[in-house]
């Protein structure tokens, strides 16, 4: 064997994928270029246990099982199978082997699939000493266990956002703006943006203009290269309390913007503004859907909870009902409007339901709100948007720093992914809300604790 060929062989890796990676991205095993990919048999067993149900993880499990079946054809999958169209990359299922040396089950305890997955990776390391065997997992603890056994381990990087602290905010501050710009905005409602130091954005953007004495809130249309004055608009008796909320309302009411994301910490008004905007435009849409992913305690399905379906899901949907109740309270002196809001619910003009319950439906002429979107994977976000039919508007709200799903973080969640990748699209607008408006006490918790 030539030296060059030998080096090429040594540089190749074997990536061992655990269940968390598959549930995050069911096509993950095709994303390792020329390297080999191994799937421990325990992963297939876990996916088999998860394949039934309406949750996203159930759909991911089914999709991966079908993908593996199609990729293997009539071949034996405990032998290396080349990826079609790939140069050198192969995949296989690793059986339940125990390594000759250190045994993860002896070290960490028996009865857990995770420890048997570690043994599968250790067996490959023993079988292929010339290759670098790497365990890929979204589970931080499993990666730490692997490293303690002198096994290379890393996170699944596809879809992760780098420098999340510099994530697109949808807004900019322009200082030292000439007085004549403010005069034109007041007189005509818009002004040519040529000559102003607006960063190179290709889509919808919001700008706060500051002069010597004057301040204006504006919306920048990249196609027209013009700034339009953003007025403070009241929607369903909800008025913006700061400039960012005014920007959010402007994007939510703009019929040319079909996809909106609102990111911000608790109490900034994300969900409230989205629901109020939907109700304000109720005549333009067939229905209003307000959903959120259910992230159960201890990662158990809601089937473990007592009661019927409604009593199981109501605790998870309570924050959305709280926002609708707050809107209703703005009409305490208008019994007719309060009755109309109740009628919206009873006639299903507005539907509040877990995200899993609308899986597979085509969303035509729907104002569709997804709350707590930071608990979704990039693939889930893509799937939701792909369901949009004609005249549908989709709004994602969430806080990328408050994630309840164990295998997601600020860099890998679907909301961060969408903000980063959609920011230059003309159908999209984003705004980050910084100022909490729930109460001074809530702000104290966010700012100081």
From TrEMBL:
In the N-terminal section; belongs to the PINc/VapC protein family. This is PhoH-like ATPase. GO terms for molecular function: ATP binding. SUPFAM superfamilies: P-loop containing nucleoside triphosphate hydrolases (SSF52540), PIN domain-like (SSF88723). Residues 13-144 form the PIN domain. The keyword ATP-binding applies. Keywords: ATP-binding, Nucleotide-binding. The keyword Lyase does not apply. CDD domains: PIN_VapC_PhoHL-ATPase.
